[in-house]
């Protein structure tokens, strides 16, 4: 006999039925992802503080996964909430990214657990494509304070910065080939939303500022890139469907990436400069 579903499970499946996202294994894999760049957060906060005075009180990171985009907010707010529809992701966040002023909770993005006008900043980091967007944006308007900000951002790749345009083009092709092989296995049908830089999303706010291709650099390793591409939901579903072919796919990606690194005399474990190009949308609610 199957166990009776909890109310939490029923709510989760109502909004995000893709089961792969709920597994403990998938939550552990997400820990390979790097924390959001401080440079990006400071850009978001600069926009927020144009009309919201300090001290800043409350922020919420929706679709927080294992907390990489949540803890980065902690130095700036009295209280930060990380929310995710997956209890497994929340469990991982609590285990690996716990701070005194950060709390985590499992709940759908479309039913935010806040009173009207009580949150100054809401972030959705590489997660909007998982949500029922219209319902999410409507609830964001409900809970944002006057002059509060929604920051939606995401990135599709993490690459080494070797300062060579020809090599950058080769890396772009490498990612394109990898994405093409994952195409049949994408878990969220809305992934194209992020690929299109959210151009087709109607954000119902008085102020909407689009900041495409915000490049943020940080230290990392080539092995971190391989770990990152292994976190893609499409790859995880590929593994469940055809593990041998999936391993061959990521093996080919790894081999070519390491060959490029070797041409610059960099090993997979050497510390080098990496970068991510974020797509950032800043939305301000001015009509409370």
Automatic annotation (TrEMBL):
GO biological process: methylation
GO molecular function terms listed in the Swiss-Prot or TrEMBL record: S-adenosylmethionine-dependent methyltransferase activity
Record keywords, A-Z: Methyltransferase, Transferase
Residue ranges of every copy of the Methyltransferase type domain listed in the record: 61-151
UniProt-listed InterPro entries: Diverse_substrate_MTase, Methyltransf_11, SAM-dependent_MTases_sf
Family stated for the protein in its record: Belongs to the methyltransferase superfamily.
Listed name of the protein: Methyltransferase DDB_G0268948
Gene: DDB_G0268948_3
């Amino acid at each position: 006999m199957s166990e009776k579903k909890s109310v939490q499970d029923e709510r989760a499946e109502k909004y995000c039925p893709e089961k792969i996202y709920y597994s403990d294994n998938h939550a552990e894999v997400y820990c390979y992802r790097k924390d959001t760049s401080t440079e990006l957060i400071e850009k978001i906060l600069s926009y927020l503080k144009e009309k919201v005075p300090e001290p800043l009180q409350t922020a919420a990171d929706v679709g927080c996964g294992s907390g990489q985009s949540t803890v980065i907010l902690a130095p700036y707010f009295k209280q930060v909430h990380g929310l995710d529809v997956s209890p497994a992701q929340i469990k991982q966040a609590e285990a690996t990214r716990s701070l005194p002023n950060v709390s985590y909770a499992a709940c759908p993005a479309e039913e935010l657990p806040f009173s009207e006008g009580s949150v100054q900043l809401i972030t959705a980091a590489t997660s909007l494509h998982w949500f029922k967007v219209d319902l999410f944006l409507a609830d964001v308007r409900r809970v944002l304070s006057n002059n509060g900000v929604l920051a939606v951002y995401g990135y599709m790749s993490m690459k080494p910065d070797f300062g060579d345009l020809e090599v950058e083009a080769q890396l772009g092709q490498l990612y394109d080939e990898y994405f093409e092989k994952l195409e049949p296995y994408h878990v969220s049908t809305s992934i194209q939303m992020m690929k299109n830089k959210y151009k087709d999303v109607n954000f119902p706010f008085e102020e909407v500022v689009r900041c495409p291709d915000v490049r943020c650099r940080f230290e990392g390793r080539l092995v971190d890139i391989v770990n990152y591409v292994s976190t893609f939901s499409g790859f995880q579903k590929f593994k469940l469907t055809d593990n041998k072919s999936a391993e061959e796919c990521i093996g080919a990606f790894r081999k070519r990436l390491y060959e490029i690194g070797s041409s610059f005399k960099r090993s997979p474990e050497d510390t080098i400069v990496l970068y991510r190009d974020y797509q950032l949308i800043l939305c301000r609610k001015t009509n409370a």
